[in-house]
Amino acid sequence: MIKIIIAEDQQLILKDLCNKISKIDDDINIVATAINGADAYEKIIDLRPDIVFTDINMPIMDGIQMIEKVKSKNIDTRFVVISGYKDFEYARAAIKVGVDEYLLKPILIEDIKKILNNLKSKISMKQNDYEQHIIDKLINSTVTDKPTINTNFDYKYYYVILFVAGPYSSFTIDFDTQFTQILNNIDLMNISKNYLGIDDRMFLTKGKNNNEMVGIWASNHDYSNNIRLFCDEVISICNEKDVFLTVGLSRPIKHIDNIGITSQIVRTVLKKKIVFSQSNILDCSKNDMYVHNHRIFLTDNIEKSIKFMVQNNQKDNFISTCLDLIKTLKENSATQLEIDKCLKSLKDICNTYILSEYNISDIDIKIDECISSSSNYDELSSNIKFIFNEFIDDYNKNTLKNNSMNDIIQSSKEYIKSHFSEDININDIASLFSVSPTYFSRLFKKEVGIPPVVYLTRYRLEKACEYFDNTEFTVKEVSELCGYSDPFYFSKAFKSIIGVSPKTYKSKIKA
Predict the structure, then answer these.
(1) Which class in CATH covers the domain with range 2-124?
(2) pLDDT tens, position by position, for the chain (511 residues)?
(3) Backbone dihedral angles phi then psi of residue 246, each to the nearest 5 degrees
(4) CA–CA distance, 383 with 368 (Å, rounded to integer)
(5) Coil, strand, or helix at residue 368?
(6) Which CATH code is given to the segment(s) 405-510?
(7) Which residue numbers delimit the HTH araC/xylS-type domain (predicted)?
(8) Please, which contacts does 94-102 make with residues 24 or more away whose CB atoms are closer than 8 Å?
(9) CB distance 235 to 279 below 8 Å
(10) Nearby residues of 327 by Cβ (< 8 Å), 6 or more positions away
């Protein structure tokens, strides 16, 4: 409703103007009239009208003086000056004080209609901007810090709708991902028009993170079903873009000033309930939304296996187990919070055994970034594999700074010579120097010219020949002395390297 005050000292003109304005639009309310500038000023201060029609030449205080005085109070009112004078000085004075329209007597209804249509459009735009500003302030307000509302939000129900494209971002500092512009590129306001009731309204404001949007659905009816249909359409559009969308939907709120705390509640629920890589609507009006029974996927047996792999530098097995764990998370439709806890538990195991020299907060940030930037489980697996590969390899490289290359190779040779008769393998040797078996094998071959497994085999068989040359031990006894529990396998390895079987070699020595 547009509020109007008319100031005119001539009663007949005042009455005629009131009648004509009243006939133009039902959305107009003449809240007061005045016969002089001083009276008009007092009523404007008290009633805060949207538009004031005022004559220029009035007693006590003329129209120009009254307008200047009102504007000094920073009251947002539109002024239409009425004058029977075509004198340029009056028009110039009116323009100088910032009037919006100039109406000449005799007053025609067509002129009034044209002026009112123009001013109503400006008032409506400004009112919408102000209401949007209030919504923006309320969304970011706290219980103790609410903005003053100087406008009528007279809807019966308000719904908070939180849209999150892709994973929930847990970063305190926002950063761009593939999801940043998704919601900005969808015309949510236009889509909502298909579901809004008559006189209902949708407000949109930016969320806490770049991949979020907050909607406020204002209605005089229970349109919860329409809201879900609206959300379903937005989800469908996102799915076509291969992006999963999570929507948090509040219960209906009766007071507009509660949307700030309600949006925080919706955000808290969504953060704990968002299912990674699946589009979903989370109805926060349901009680079960506030029960958070997070499942544990990193069982004691898996944890023991991982600890063993980490302790023994079995990087490939560790990475494989991590990927299997992610596959299990996918099969069980894990929440993002469950995935986060699981991956950071893996990080804690690594920290205990091999990553103690690193800044653990950096690894946490990398895991957060990994989850926040992955659109599906394939991307998540690839990103996690890269993170743990990088840290384990960096650890191995840093370890080698404290153990020179030659020292490691020389020490590994000495270890082989001292323990060749035991059931040892390359994994055992690599773990002594806190490097992965793959990295150790590559390093050993580079320095010695052959892989460590070949070096171990050759040394064992050289010792076997010495036993055959200098003792009366049987083939089975020599195989055990050289670290082979299986005589058949020993014979096969012996013939492959020496060229003849152990039995033949031994008989030639005797001859």
Answers:
(1) alpha beta
(2) 789 999 999 999 999 999 999 988 888 899 999 999 999 999 999 999 999 999 988 999 988 899 999 989 888 899 999 887 665 566 666 667 778 888 888 888 999 999 998 888 778 777 777 788 888 888 876 655 555 555 567 789 999 999 999 999 876 555 678 898 899 999 999 999 999 988 889 999 988 888 999 999 999 988 789 999 999 999 999 999 999 999 999 999 998 888 988 999 999 999 999 999 999 999 988 877 767 677 989 989 998 888 888 777 788 898 999 999 999 999 999 999 999 999 999 888 877 666 444 556 678 888 998 999 999 999 999 999 998 888 777 766 665 555 566 778 888 999 999 999 988 888 888 878 777 788 788 889 988 999 999 999 999 999 999 999 988 889 999 999 999 988 999 999 999 999 999 999 988 876 6
(3) -110, 130
(4) 11
(5) helix
(6) 1.10.10.60
(7) 410-508
(8) 94/56, 94/64, 94/67, 97/64, 97/67, 97/68, 97/71, 98/67, 98/71, 99/67
(9) yes
(10) 377, 381
Q: Where in the chain are the domains? A: 2-124, 157-289, 300-398, 405-510
Indicate the pairing of strand 212-219 with strand 201-206: antiparallel
Helices (H) and strands (E) in the chain, counts: 20, 10
Establish whether domains 2-124 and 405-510 are of one fold.
no
Order across the sheet with 245-249: list the strands. Answer: 201-206, 212-219, 157-165, 245-249, 280-283
The 3 state secondary structure assigned to 31-100 is EEEECCHHHHHHHHHHHCCCEEEEECCCCCCCHHHHHHHHHCCCCCCEEEEEECCCCHHHHHHHHHHCCC
Q: Residue 243 in contact with residue 276, Cβ under 8 Å?
A: no
Long-range contacts of 10-18 (CB under 8 A, 24+ apart): 10/55, 11/35, 13/55, 13/82, 13/105, 13/107, 16/107, 17/53, 17/82, 17/107, 17/112
Indicate the class that CATH gives domain 157-289: alpha beta
Tokens, residue 213: 């949007």
Q: Which of 318, 302, 405 is nearest to 353 (CA)?
A: 318
Q: Tell me, yes or no, if the pTM score tops 0.90.
A: no
Instruction: Report the C-alpha gap between 416 and 406 in whole angstroms.
Output: 15
